[in-house]
Amino acid sequence: MSSKKQRKKIGSEHLQRIIDLCKSIEDKGLDPFLVDVDDIIEVVREYFPEWELPEELCLDAETIHGLASVIKLQSDWVKHRSTSLYTDPFLLEEKIRKLSKVELANLFLHVWHPIIEFEQISPHSLAEAIRYWQSLLPLDERWLKTASQKIETGTVTREELIKQRILAEKTFSKDLEALWDELRQKVGEKEKILYWDFVGANTYDETIKRAYLTSFLVTYGYATLEVNPLEEEIFVKPYEKPVSMLGKRQVISIPVSVSNEEWVKWKRGQQN
Amino acid sequence: MGEMEKRSTKLKKKAHYARQLKRAAHLLFYRRHKKPGVKGWELRRRLGADYPKVLNLLDDHLEQLDLQVKTIFEEEKPAEKPTSEQLDKARFYITLRGGLTPKETKMMGWRIDDIAGLATAISYVISKKGRAPREEVEDLLRLKLPGWRVDINMNRYVRSGYLAEDENKQLYLDWRTRAEIDQKTLVDLLLSTDSLRKEDSNYKEEHLK
Q1: Do A112 and B187 touch (CB under 8 A)?
Q2: CA distance A94 to chain B (A)
Q3: What is the reported pTM?
Protein backbone atom coordinates (compact mmCIF):
# COMPACT_ATOMS: atom_id res chain seq x y z
CA MET A 1 0.00 0.00 0.00
CA SER A 2 2.76 2.40 0.99
CA SER A 3 4.67 1.65 -2.23
CA LYS A 4 1.52 2.57 -4.20
CA LYS A 5 1.33 5.86 -2.32
CA GLN A 6 4.99 6.47 -3.01
CA ARG A 7 4.50 5.78 -6.72
CA LYS A 8 1.52 8.13 -6.83
CA LYS A 9 3.59 10.85 -5.20
CA ILE A 10 6.42 10.44 -7.69
CA GLY A 11 3.95 10.35 -10.57
CA SER A 12 2.17 13.53 -9.54
CA GLU A 13 5.50 15.32 -9.08
CA HIS A 14 6.50 14.18 -12.53
CA LEU A 15 3.29 15.47 -14.09
CA GLN A 16 3.60 18.78 -12.24
CA ARG A 17 7.10 19.25 -13.69
CA ILE A 18 5.73 18.58 -17.19
CA ILE A 19 2.93 21.13 -16.65
CA ASP A 20 5.48 23.72 -15.48
CA LEU A 21 7.69 23.06 -18.48
CA CYS A 22 4.77 23.45 -20.91
CA LYS A 23 3.66 26.64 -19.16
CA SER A 24 7.12 28.21 -19.25
CA ILE A 25 7.44 27.40 -22.96
CA GLU A 26 4.09 29.04 -23.62
CA ASP A 27 4.64 32.09 -21.40
CA LYS A 28 8.27 32.83 -22.13
CA GLY A 29 8.21 32.01 -25.82
CA LEU A 30 10.88 29.32 -25.53
CA ASP A 31 11.56 26.83 -28.31
CA PRO A 32 8.55 24.43 -28.27
CA PHE A 33 10.73 21.65 -29.66
CA LEU A 34 12.46 21.45 -26.28
CA VAL A 35 9.58 19.17 -25.35
CA ASP A 36 9.78 15.58 -26.54
CA VAL A 37 6.09 14.86 -27.04
CA ASP A 38 6.52 11.07 -27.34
CA ASP A 39 8.44 10.89 -24.08
CA ILE A 40 5.80 12.88 -22.22
CA ILE A 41 2.94 10.80 -23.60
CA GLU A 42 4.82 7.73 -22.39
CA VAL A 43 5.08 9.18 -18.88
CA VAL A 44 1.39 10.18 -18.83
CA ARG A 45 0.41 6.70 -20.00
CA GLU A 46 2.63 5.03 -17.41
CA TYR A 47 1.03 6.77 -14.44
CA PHE A 48 -2.55 6.91 -15.74
CA PRO A 49 -3.67 3.55 -14.17
CA GLU A 50 -2.62 4.87 -10.73
CA TRP A 51 -5.02 7.80 -10.70
CA GLU A 52 -8.26 7.34 -8.78
CA LEU A 53 -9.15 10.62 -7.10
CA PRO A 54 -10.68 13.53 -9.04
CA GLU A 55 -7.72 15.83 -8.28
CA GLU A 56 -5.31 13.19 -9.61
CA LEU A 57 -7.32 12.88 -12.82
CA CYS A 58 -7.40 16.68 -13.08
CA LEU A 59 -3.62 16.75 -12.91
CA ASP A 60 -3.50 14.19 -15.70
CA ALA A 61 -5.91 16.29 -17.80
CA GLU A 62 -3.90 19.43 -17.14
CA THR A 63 -0.76 17.69 -18.36
CA ILE A 64 -2.49 16.69 -21.60
CA HIS A 65 -3.76 20.24 -21.98
CA GLY A 66 -0.25 21.67 -21.53
CA LEU A 67 1.11 19.19 -24.02
CA ALA A 68 -1.60 20.13 -26.54
CA SER A 69 -0.60 23.79 -26.22
CA VAL A 70 3.03 22.92 -26.90
CA ILE A 71 2.03 20.83 -29.94
CA LYS A 72 0.08 23.85 -31.22
CA LEU A 73 3.18 26.02 -30.78
CA GLN A 74 5.22 23.44 -32.69
CA SER A 75 2.64 23.46 -35.47
CA ASP A 76 2.69 27.29 -35.60
CA TRP A 77 6.47 27.16 -35.82
CA VAL A 78 6.34 24.81 -38.81
CA LYS A 79 3.68 26.98 -40.47
CA HIS A 80 5.75 30.12 -39.95
CA ARG A 81 8.84 28.47 -41.40
CA SER A 82 6.91 27.70 -44.55
CA THR A 83 5.75 31.33 -45.03
CA SER A 84 7.65 33.98 -46.96
CA LEU A 85 8.16 35.93 -43.74
CA TYR A 86 10.35 33.24 -42.25
CA THR A 87 13.93 34.13 -41.74
CA ASP A 88 16.58 32.73 -39.50
CA PRO A 89 16.37 34.83 -36.30
CA PHE A 90 20.12 34.56 -35.72
CA LEU A 91 20.88 35.77 -39.22
CA LEU A 92 18.49 38.68 -38.83
CA GLU A 93 19.85 39.55 -35.40
CA GLU A 94 23.35 39.54 -36.84
CA LYS A 95 22.27 41.88 -39.64
CA ILE A 96 20.65 44.24 -37.13
CA ARG A 97 23.80 44.22 -34.97
CA LYS A 98 26.00 45.06 -37.96
CA LEU A 99 23.92 47.96 -39.23
CA SER A 100 24.39 51.45 -37.86
CA LYS A 101 21.49 53.46 -36.49
CA VAL A 102 21.40 55.62 -39.60
CA GLU A 103 21.43 52.62 -41.93
CA LEU A 104 18.64 50.95 -39.99
CA ALA A 105 16.52 54.08 -40.01
CA ASN A 106 17.10 54.63 -43.72
CA LEU A 107 16.13 51.06 -44.48
CA PHE A 108 12.98 51.39 -42.39
CA LEU A 109 11.91 54.54 -44.22
CA HIS A 110 11.63 52.46 -47.41
CA VAL A 111 8.90 50.28 -45.90
CA TRP A 112 7.16 52.70 -43.55
CA HIS A 113 3.93 54.24 -44.83
CA PRO A 114 2.45 56.14 -41.87
CA ILE A 115 -1.29 56.58 -41.49
CA ILE A 116 -2.61 60.04 -42.34
CA GLU A 117 -5.28 61.22 -39.92
CA PHE A 118 -6.75 64.42 -38.59
CA GLU A 119 -7.74 64.86 -35.00
CA GLN A 120 -8.85 68.48 -35.20
CA ILE A 121 -12.35 69.43 -34.25
CA SER A 122 -14.44 70.25 -37.30
CA PRO A 123 -16.58 73.41 -37.63
CA HIS A 124 -19.65 71.17 -37.63
CA SER A 125 -18.83 69.43 -34.35
CA LEU A 126 -17.80 72.78 -32.81
CA ALA A 127 -21.19 74.26 -33.74
CA GLU A 128 -22.91 71.20 -32.31
CA ALA A 129 -20.93 71.49 -29.07
CA ILE A 130 -21.88 75.18 -28.73
CA ARG A 131 -25.54 74.34 -29.32
CA TYR A 132 -25.38 71.65 -26.67
CA TRP A 133 -23.64 73.95 -24.19
CA GLN A 134 -26.16 76.73 -24.74
CA SER A 135 -29.12 74.42 -24.23
CA LEU A 136 -27.60 72.84 -21.12
CA LEU A 137 -29.34 74.02 -17.97
CA PRO A 138 -27.26 74.87 -14.88
CA LEU A 139 -26.83 71.87 -12.60
CA ASP A 140 -28.93 73.29 -9.72
CA GLU A 141 -31.85 73.86 -12.10
CA ARG A 142 -31.57 70.37 -13.50
CA TRP A 143 -31.51 68.82 -10.04
CA LEU A 144 -34.48 70.89 -9.02
CA LYS A 145 -36.39 69.68 -12.03
CA THR A 146 -35.54 66.08 -11.31
CA ALA A 147 -36.57 66.40 -7.69
CA SER A 148 -39.94 67.89 -8.52
CA GLN A 149 -40.76 65.31 -11.12
CA LYS A 150 -43.05 62.66 -9.76
CA ILE A 151 -44.10 60.00 -12.17
CA GLU A 152 -46.38 57.25 -11.15
CA THR A 153 -44.87 53.98 -12.12
CA GLY A 154 -46.78 50.87 -12.98
CA THR A 155 -46.11 47.45 -14.35
CA VAL A 156 -47.07 45.84 -17.60
CA THR A 157 -46.98 42.16 -18.37
CA ARG A 158 -45.99 40.58 -21.64
CA GLU A 159 -49.49 39.17 -22.04
CA GLU A 160 -50.96 42.65 -21.82
CA LEU A 161 -48.60 43.89 -24.49
CA ILE A 162 -49.53 40.98 -26.72
CA LYS A 163 -53.20 41.90 -26.18
CA GLN A 164 -52.47 45.49 -27.14
CA ARG A 165 -50.68 44.17 -30.27
CA ILE A 166 -47.44 45.81 -29.26
CA LEU A 167 -45.78 42.43 -29.20
CA ALA A 168 -46.37 39.27 -31.16
CA GLU A 169 -45.93 36.19 -29.02
CA LYS A 170 -44.13 33.93 -31.44
CA THR A 171 -41.52 36.37 -32.63
CA PHE A 172 -40.48 37.66 -29.23
CA SER A 173 -37.14 35.88 -29.05
CA LYS A 174 -36.46 36.62 -32.72
CA ASP A 175 -37.26 40.31 -32.11
CA LEU A 176 -34.91 40.25 -29.15
CA GLU A 177 -32.07 38.73 -31.21
CA ALA A 178 -32.65 41.21 -34.03
CA LEU A 179 -32.59 44.13 -31.61
CA TRP A 180 -29.39 42.84 -30.04
CA ASP A 181 -27.77 42.65 -33.51
CA GLU A 182 -28.99 46.15 -34.27
CA LEU A 183 -27.59 47.43 -30.98
CA ARG A 184 -24.17 45.93 -31.67
CA GLN A 185 -24.17 47.39 -35.18
CA LYS A 186 -25.20 50.84 -33.99
CA VAL A 187 -22.64 50.90 -31.23
CA GLY A 188 -19.81 49.75 -33.50
CA GLU A 189 -16.55 50.53 -31.76
CA LYS A 190 -17.96 53.20 -29.47
CA GLU A 191 -18.92 50.56 -26.86
CA LYS A 192 -22.16 52.31 -25.93
CA ILE A 193 -25.03 54.38 -27.29
CA LEU A 194 -27.38 56.87 -25.64
CA TYR A 195 -30.52 55.08 -24.47
CA TRP A 196 -32.84 57.43 -26.33
CA ASP A 197 -30.79 57.28 -29.52
CA PHE A 198 -31.30 53.53 -29.46
CA VAL A 199 -34.91 53.13 -28.36
CA GLY A 200 -36.19 56.28 -30.09
CA ALA A 201 -38.18 55.53 -33.26
CA ASN A 202 -40.36 57.41 -35.71
CA THR A 203 -43.55 56.70 -33.79
CA TYR A 204 -44.24 56.67 -30.08
CA ASP A 205 -45.69 53.15 -30.30
CA GLU A 206 -42.53 51.84 -31.93
CA THR A 207 -40.44 53.60 -29.28
CA ILE A 208 -42.41 51.89 -26.50
CA LYS A 209 -41.88 48.53 -28.19
CA ARG A 210 -38.16 49.10 -28.50
CA ALA A 211 -37.89 50.28 -24.88
CA TYR A 212 -39.75 47.19 -23.74
CA LEU A 213 -37.50 44.86 -25.74
CA THR A 214 -34.42 46.74 -24.54
CA SER A 215 -35.44 46.07 -20.94
CA PHE A 216 -35.41 42.35 -21.80
CA LEU A 217 -32.02 42.68 -23.49
CA VAL A 218 -30.68 44.01 -20.19
CA THR A 219 -32.54 41.54 -17.99
CA TYR A 220 -31.41 38.55 -20.06
CA GLY A 221 -27.79 39.72 -20.08
CA TYR A 222 -27.48 40.71 -23.76
CA ALA A 223 -26.68 44.27 -22.76
CA THR A 224 -26.26 46.52 -19.77
CA LEU A 225 -27.24 50.07 -18.82
CA GLU A 226 -24.76 52.73 -17.78
CA VAL A 227 -26.36 55.58 -15.86
CA ASN A 228 -24.68 58.96 -15.59
CA PRO A 229 -26.80 60.72 -12.94
CA LEU A 230 -25.07 64.11 -13.15
CA GLU A 231 -25.53 64.44 -16.88
CA GLU A 232 -28.88 62.66 -16.73
CA GLU A 233 -27.67 60.32 -19.43
CA ILE A 234 -28.34 56.63 -19.80
CA PHE A 235 -26.27 54.52 -22.16
CA VAL A 236 -26.92 51.03 -23.48
CA LYS A 237 -23.85 48.81 -23.77
CA PRO A 238 -24.18 45.50 -25.64
CA TYR A 239 -22.30 42.37 -24.63
CA GLU A 240 -20.62 40.23 -27.28
CA LYS A 241 -22.14 37.13 -25.68
CA PRO A 242 -25.12 36.95 -23.31
CA VAL A 243 -23.91 37.22 -19.72
CA SER A 244 -25.73 35.66 -16.83
CA MET A 245 -25.79 38.02 -13.85
CA LEU A 246 -27.53 35.62 -11.52
CA GLY A 247 -25.52 35.10 -8.40
CA LYS A 248 -22.57 37.12 -9.72
CA ARG A 249 -23.52 40.54 -8.51
CA GLN A 250 -26.45 42.31 -7.01
CA VAL A 251 -29.06 42.91 -9.69
CA ILE A 252 -30.83 46.27 -9.50
CA SER A 253 -33.79 47.67 -11.38
CA ILE A 254 -33.44 50.97 -13.17
CA PRO A 255 -36.72 52.75 -13.91
CA VAL A 256 -36.59 54.67 -17.19
CA SER A 257 -39.42 56.99 -18.09
CA VAL A 258 -40.50 56.66 -21.73
CA SER A 259 -43.31 59.18 -21.72
CA ASN A 260 -44.83 60.79 -24.76
CA GLU A 261 -43.31 64.17 -23.72
CA GLU A 262 -39.86 62.61 -23.52
CA TRP A 263 -40.32 61.09 -26.95
CA VAL A 264 -41.48 64.42 -28.48
CA LYS A 265 -38.49 66.16 -26.91
CA TRP A 266 -36.10 63.54 -28.31
CA LYS A 267 -37.75 63.69 -31.74
CA ARG A 268 -37.37 67.48 -31.83
CA GLY A 269 -33.71 67.12 -30.91
CA GLN A 270 -33.26 64.66 -33.78
CA GLN A 271 -34.89 67.01 -36.27
CA ASN A 272 -32.72 69.93 -35.17
CA MET B 1 -33.72 61.42 -77.09
CA GLY B 2 -32.04 58.16 -76.17
CA GLU B 3 -28.67 59.87 -76.39
CA MET B 4 -29.90 62.67 -74.11
CA GLU B 5 -31.13 60.20 -71.53
CA LYS B 6 -27.86 58.35 -71.64
CA ARG B 7 -25.94 61.56 -71.11
CA SER B 8 -28.19 62.62 -68.26
CA THR B 9 -27.78 59.23 -66.56
CA LYS B 10 -24.03 59.48 -66.97
CA LEU B 11 -23.98 62.94 -65.44
CA LYS B 12 -26.12 61.80 -62.53
CA LYS B 13 -23.79 58.87 -61.93
CA LYS B 14 -20.78 61.15 -62.06
CA ALA B 15 -22.34 63.55 -59.57
CA HIS B 16 -23.23 60.62 -57.31
CA TYR B 17 -19.65 59.33 -57.25
CA ALA B 18 -18.27 62.84 -56.74
CA ARG B 19 -20.43 63.14 -53.62
CA GLN B 20 -19.45 59.68 -52.41
CA LEU B 21 -15.78 60.49 -52.95
CA LYS B 22 -15.99 63.52 -50.69
CA ARG B 23 -17.85 61.56 -48.06
CA ALA B 24 -15.31 58.73 -48.19
CA ALA B 25 -12.42 61.21 -47.85
CA HIS B 26 -14.05 62.79 -44.79
CA LEU B 27 -14.69 59.41 -43.21
CA LEU B 28 -11.17 58.17 -43.77
CA PHE B 29 -9.19 61.30 -42.99
CA TYR B 30 -10.94 62.29 -39.77
CA ARG B 31 -10.46 60.01 -36.83
CA ARG B 32 -13.85 58.93 -35.53
CA HIS B 33 -12.91 56.19 -33.10
CA LYS B 34 -10.17 55.54 -30.59
CA LYS B 35 -8.07 54.08 -33.38
CA PRO B 36 -7.81 55.64 -36.84
CA GLY B 37 -9.31 53.93 -39.87
CA VAL B 38 -12.82 52.86 -40.75
CA LYS B 39 -14.30 49.37 -40.86
CA GLY B 40 -15.75 48.10 -44.13
CA TRP B 41 -19.25 47.71 -42.72
CA GLU B 42 -19.23 51.34 -41.60
CA LEU B 43 -18.27 52.43 -45.10
CA ARG B 44 -20.98 50.24 -46.58
CA ARG B 45 -23.54 51.87 -44.30
CA ARG B 46 -22.43 55.38 -45.18
CA LEU B 47 -21.46 54.99 -48.84
CA GLY B 48 -23.62 52.13 -50.03
CA ALA B 49 -22.87 48.65 -51.29
CA ASP B 50 -20.49 49.86 -54.00
CA TYR B 51 -18.10 51.41 -51.45
CA PRO B 52 -15.13 49.34 -52.77
CA LYS B 53 -15.55 51.17 -56.09
CA VAL B 54 -15.67 54.54 -54.33
CA LEU B 55 -12.49 53.62 -52.45
CA ASN B 56 -10.76 52.66 -55.70
CA LEU B 57 -11.70 56.05 -57.16
CA LEU B 58 -10.44 57.80 -54.04
CA ASP B 59 -7.22 55.81 -54.24
CA ASP B 60 -6.71 57.01 -57.82
CA HIS B 61 -7.21 60.61 -56.73
CA LEU B 62 -4.84 60.23 -53.78
CA GLU B 63 -2.08 58.79 -55.92
CA GLN B 64 -1.22 62.28 -57.17
CA LEU B 65 -0.61 63.30 -53.55
CA ASP B 66 1.52 60.23 -52.79
CA LEU B 67 -1.22 58.85 -50.55
CA GLN B 68 -3.20 55.63 -50.77
CA VAL B 69 -6.21 53.83 -49.37
CA LYS B 70 -4.85 50.85 -47.48
CA THR B 71 -6.94 47.80 -46.69
CA ILE B 72 -6.00 45.68 -43.71
CA PHE B 73 -7.91 42.43 -43.55
CA GLU B 74 -8.92 40.93 -40.25
CA GLU B 75 -7.01 37.77 -41.00
CA GLU B 76 -4.32 37.21 -43.63
CA LYS B 77 -4.70 39.00 -46.94
CA PRO B 78 -6.87 36.78 -49.17
CA ALA B 79 -5.05 35.30 -52.13
CA GLU B 80 -7.96 35.92 -54.48
CA LYS B 81 -10.45 38.77 -54.80
CA PRO B 82 -11.79 39.42 -51.28
CA THR B 83 -15.40 38.58 -50.56
CA SER B 84 -17.79 41.30 -49.42
CA GLU B 85 -17.76 39.71 -45.97
CA GLN B 86 -13.96 39.94 -45.78
CA LEU B 87 -14.13 43.56 -46.95
CA ASP B 88 -16.78 44.41 -44.38
CA LYS B 89 -14.57 43.09 -41.61
CA ALA B 90 -11.45 44.77 -42.98
CA ARG B 91 -10.20 48.17 -41.81
CA PHE B 92 -9.40 50.96 -44.24
CA TYR B 93 -6.82 53.67 -43.70
CA ILE B 94 -5.22 56.48 -45.65
CA THR B 95 -1.47 56.03 -45.61
CA LEU B 96 1.53 57.45 -47.37
CA ARG B 97 2.02 55.66 -50.68
CA GLY B 98 5.77 56.15 -50.95
CA GLY B 99 8.50 56.41 -48.34
CA LEU B 100 9.55 59.27 -46.11
CA THR B 101 12.74 61.28 -46.22
CA PRO B 102 14.79 61.65 -43.04
CA LYS B 103 13.95 65.35 -42.89
CA GLU B 104 10.25 64.59 -42.96
CA THR B 105 10.54 62.18 -40.05
CA LYS B 106 12.11 64.94 -37.99
CA MET B 107 9.08 67.11 -38.67
CA MET B 108 6.86 64.26 -37.49
CA GLY B 109 8.69 64.15 -34.17
CA TRP B 110 10.66 60.97 -34.80
CA ARG B 111 14.39 61.07 -34.11
CA ILE B 112 16.75 58.83 -36.02
CA ASP B 113 17.24 56.82 -32.79
CA ASP B 114 13.51 56.25 -32.46
CA ILE B 115 13.16 54.99 -36.02
CA ALA B 116 16.20 52.73 -35.80
CA GLY B 117 14.82 51.32 -32.53
CA LEU B 118 11.41 50.74 -34.05
CA ALA B 119 12.95 49.00 -37.08
CA THR B 120 15.01 46.78 -34.77
CA ALA B 121 12.12 45.89 -32.47
CA ILE B 122 9.69 45.10 -35.29
CA SER B 123 12.10 43.05 -37.37
CA TYR B 124 13.19 41.09 -34.31
CA VAL B 125 9.60 40.26 -33.38
CA ILE B 126 8.91 39.22 -37.00
CA SER B 127 11.93 36.93 -36.97
CA LYS B 128 10.63 35.31 -33.76
CA LYS B 129 7.34 34.35 -35.42
CA GLY B 130 5.53 37.45 -34.21
CA ARG B 131 6.27 37.04 -30.50
CA ALA B 132 9.39 37.90 -28.52
CA PRO B 133 10.19 38.60 -24.86
CA ARG B 134 10.50 42.34 -24.16
CA GLU B 135 13.77 41.73 -22.34
CA GLU B 136 15.40 40.28 -25.48
CA VAL B 137 14.23 43.19 -27.62
CA GLU B 138 15.50 45.67 -25.03
CA ASP B 139 18.89 43.96 -24.94
CA LEU B 140 19.11 44.32 -28.70
CA LEU B 141 18.10 47.98 -28.56
CA ARG B 142 20.75 48.68 -25.94
CA LEU B 143 23.37 47.92 -28.59
CA LYS B 144 22.31 51.01 -30.53
CA LEU B 145 20.59 53.32 -28.06
CA PRO B 146 21.60 54.76 -24.71
CA GLY B 147 20.20 52.59 -21.91
CA TRP B 148 17.92 55.28 -20.48
CA ARG B 149 16.21 55.71 -23.84
CA VAL B 150 15.42 52.04 -24.35
CA ASP B 151 12.53 51.81 -21.91
CA ILE B 152 11.11 55.17 -23.02
CA ASN B 153 11.23 54.13 -26.66
CA MET B 154 9.73 50.71 -26.04
CA ASN B 155 6.83 52.30 -24.16
CA ARG B 156 6.34 54.72 -27.04
CA TYR B 157 6.17 51.88 -29.58
CA VAL B 158 3.61 50.06 -27.43
CA ARG B 159 1.58 53.22 -26.81
CA SER B 160 1.47 54.10 -30.51
CA GLY B 161 0.17 50.65 -31.44
CA TYR B 162 3.27 49.31 -33.20
CA LEU B 163 3.82 46.66 -30.56
CA ALA B 164 1.54 45.04 -28.02
CA GLU B 165 2.68 43.60 -24.71
CA ASP B 166 0.96 40.90 -22.67
CA GLU B 167 1.10 40.19 -18.95
CA ASN B 168 4.06 37.84 -19.46
CA LYS B 169 6.12 40.67 -21.00
CA GLN B 170 5.88 39.14 -24.44
CA LEU B 171 5.81 41.54 -27.38
CA TYR B 172 3.60 41.13 -30.45
CA LEU B 173 3.11 43.14 -33.61
CA ASP B 174 0.13 45.43 -33.13
CA TRP B 175 -2.41 47.07 -35.43
CA ARG B 176 -0.26 50.02 -36.52
CA THR B 177 2.56 47.78 -37.69
CA ARG B 178 0.09 45.81 -39.80
CA ALA B 179 -1.33 49.03 -41.24
CA GLU B 180 1.86 50.98 -41.87
CA ILE B 181 4.75 48.61 -42.39
CA ASP B 182 5.49 46.37 -45.31
CA GLN B 183 6.86 43.55 -43.18
CA LYS B 184 8.03 41.30 -45.96
CA THR B 185 10.01 44.06 -47.66
CA LEU B 186 11.52 45.04 -44.31
CA VAL B 187 12.89 41.54 -43.77
CA ASP B 188 14.07 41.31 -47.39
CA LEU B 189 15.83 44.65 -47.13
CA LEU B 190 17.52 43.66 -43.88
CA LEU B 191 18.77 40.44 -45.39
CA SER B 192 20.15 42.25 -48.42
CA THR B 193 21.79 45.01 -46.45
CA ASP B 194 25.19 44.64 -48.09
CA SER B 195 23.81 45.65 -51.47
CA LEU B 196 21.66 48.30 -49.87
CA ARG B 197 24.67 49.87 -48.22
CA LYS B 198 26.19 50.58 -51.61
CA GLU B 199 22.98 52.18 -52.86
CA ASP B 200 22.69 54.42 -49.84
CA SER B 201 26.29 55.31 -49.38
CA ASN B 202 25.51 58.98 -49.81
CA TYR B 203 22.65 58.86 -47.31
CA LYS B 204 24.76 59.50 -44.27
CA GLU B 205 26.22 62.69 -45.64
CA GLU B 206 22.80 63.94 -46.65
CA HIS B 207 21.33 63.17 -43.25
CA LEU B 208 24.13 64.77 -41.27
CA LYS B 209 23.82 68.04 -43.20
Answers
A1: no
A2: 10
A3: 0.54
